[in-house]
Amino acid sequence: MSNIQDQTFGNFTHWLAAYLQSADGQVAVVGVGVAIVMALAVAVVLAGARRRRQSRDEMRDMRSVAENQFAEIKGRLTAMAEVSAQRQMEQAQVLTQSMEGFGRRFSESLLDTQRQTGDTVARMSERIDSLQRHLAQTLDGVTNRVGDSLAAEGRRTSESLSTLNERLAVIDDARQSLAHLSSEVISLQGVLSNKQARGAFGQVRMETIIRDALPAGAYEFQPTLSNGKRPDCVIKLPNTPAPLVVDSKFPLEGFEALRVARSAEETKAANTAIREAVGRHIDDIAEKYLIAGETQDTALMFVPSESIYGDLHEHFSDLVQRAHRSRIVIVAPNILMLAVQTVQAVIKDVRMRDQAGLIQREVGFLLGDVARLADRVNELEKHFQLAVKALEKLDTSAGKITSRGERIRSLELVESPAATVPETPLLKAGE
Questions:
Q1: pLDDT value at position 25?
Q2: What is this structure's pTM?
Q3: What residue spans define the domains of the chain?
């Protein structure tokens, strides 16, 4: 490579000299400058080539040194690996021998422990069998008591149901009597001759229906509300403090006028009077008796005549819709009876559920007693385990005492007074 560069530089020098000899004047000067620049460039290129050649030589030297060091390290690692493998083989042999000895000793100790455990388990099995028999007897007694209690509760429930059936039969008879009476009453003119008589008639019919259908504590006549108003009746519903209000003061004057009307003008005037009177009564009930949180948000407006109730729904449907919007339900005697019977069924259902809750509470108490019995049995079992451990310690002490007695018995007693007592003690502490 160096010869090629020297030859290239020589050729360039000869070319430069020839160019200078052939050039003249200014051209010669310019040519000289260009030649000098080119000569400097060639010199720089040759210097870079020499540095690269030196770098490659240094890299080859470093690589050969690294290869020698790697070969030396590889030899040392190979020797260390052989020595380590030899040591591991020796340690493995020693460990195998130690494990074999430990296995033999452990097997012997395990056999002894198994024999002792078998004896202890046999004794514990006898004690557990006895405890199980005792527990079975106790649980049988508890089961018998639970069965007797459930049977007694079933008899009481059956008696309550029979009483309820008798009361339902009485209520059904009363309902049939009321239906027969309502079918016989065709005209109310004699009874409804004045306003006080009409109010008393409606009040009596409503009270009779409610009193015959509901128990005494499920209703109240003419109570006083927080706003000072006194409704005709309130029905107490289960599981809520807000009662259901029933009003029996239904305006009947317009219906009487409609019954006796002979011309179209009289009929129209009677219809207008009915709409005004009934609408005003609906508003009064909604304003007086619907108290948030104190009464139910729905009230019953009692109509003492089935015929008037039919006329309302047939000819005055707008009043019925107005009552519905005001949360007032218009009821006739038969519908009031149906509503009261529904309340009665709800009350009966609540009472039955109360009885079922009582049974569930008693069963819960019984289960709590059984759980406490199980805890006490566990405590008794712990005491038995402690007693077993104490008996095992007693067996160990008795065995040691027996062994010492045998050793004392086996000694040869010498009658000669010159006999000496052996220096080694007969018994060691802790044996």
A1: 46
A2: 0.40
A3: 2-99, 159-365
